Amino acid sequence: MSTSNTFPIGTFGQPWGDEEKAQWLATTSIKRSYKDDVITKIDALKDRFDVTQYGALSFDSERYPQFGIRSRDFDASKPTILITGGVHGYETSGVHGALKFLDTEALGFTEHFNFVVAPCVSPWGYETINRWNPRAVDPNRSFVENSPAEESANVMAFVKGLGIDIFCHIDLHETTDTDESEFRPALAARDGKEYEEDVIPDGFYLVGDSDMPNTEFQTAIIDEVRKVTHIAPPDDNGNIIGAPIEQEGVINYPTKTLGLCSGFTNCQYGTTTEVYPDSPKVTDEECNDAQVAAIRGALNYLIAHQ
């Protein structure tokens, strides 16, 4: 594995201060519309689901409201499924996969489950196609007490405020080529560390919780997704993004310790999906369909094992 020391912002070996973070923010720009792409689709669900604005980003509260979507007629006797997307705003199919599931399949599962969905946790990141928030903070390392990212803090407060137990949490993500070309080098520079190059896996994989692996649950998701897209193989060292595979297409992280979104509730079942949208083998819509398939595979497993 090789290393690299160069990044256009900051001094190698020194963590960024406010000046470097401001320089980084100045390099970002609006590339697509959260209102046109996402809010319009949320509005179209209001005839079937309850929609709540649970927060807004102080960077521009008018432009970046945050929405939660819930199935109607909540039944306390049913388990509740939490689905989150767009924690990293640039991971497009996480957002649109969550919305497509609500539009096409969710009502078919409300006999068995209540649903709570936050389809775009990081709307500024969505518009700027960015992993971080405007303060150069990664929301998906910030699901902790006194979170440094308001994107994370707001959705945690929303879920906590519902006063219900989360049975299963499915967090929808992507791993992209820009992780390696842009975001990981930026992370190393921000933290004053050496950047170690890695390999982007070609295909879909899951990140489970090493403290609660639920192996058969993860297998059921992989088996459903493989009907839509290919599953990522391990690299020559038997790893995916530096972590050893637990089974085909599955690695495990200590999600709570790392402050990951999928670890912020005390759910009995949890997983993080990772779609690979840069593969020449897939289209954008197939990436959305892979996210829907992951949710469907999880839910069918839970129904069969209730």
From TrEMBL:
Entry's Gene Ontology molecular function annotations: metallocarboxypeptidase activity; zinc ion binding
Domain Peptidase M14, residue spans: 30-306
Coiled-coil annotated spans: none
Classification via PROSITE patterns: PEPTIDASE_M14 (PS52035)
Domain of life where this protein originates: Bacteria
Any GO BP: proteolysis
InterPro entries in the cross-refs: Peptidase_M14 (IPR000834)
Family of this protein: Belongs to the peptidase M14 family.
Name the UniProt record assigns to this protein: Peptidase
Originating organism: Enterovibrio coralii
